[in-house]
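Sharing a chain and its predicted structure for anyone who wants a worked example. Both blocks are below, sequence first, tokens second.
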Amino acid sequence: MTVRTTSKTVTFHDVFTIAGHREKFPAGDYCIETDEELIEGLSFPAYRRLLTLLCFNAEASGAGVTQFLNIDPEELDAALERDREGAGAAAATAE
């Protein structure tokens, strides 16, 4: 089984939540890691998503600890869309 991992950074401009998780996350940049496996036997390369992780720093006893939260990529997209809509509404009221 061949697995690849891709990483990207997303930015939230306001506090946000991810459906299925109770935590509220502060605004900021977050690393998103996605693991995918190669689907064998096809005449072209295709990958199946195995998991998507939200990486964030959590303060524990004064020391920074990186935590990983398994998330649904569709829920991430929905949270990013809510954040964009909130940022757009804030900009409109500021004008």
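Comments welcome. The first strand starts at residue 3 and ends at 12.
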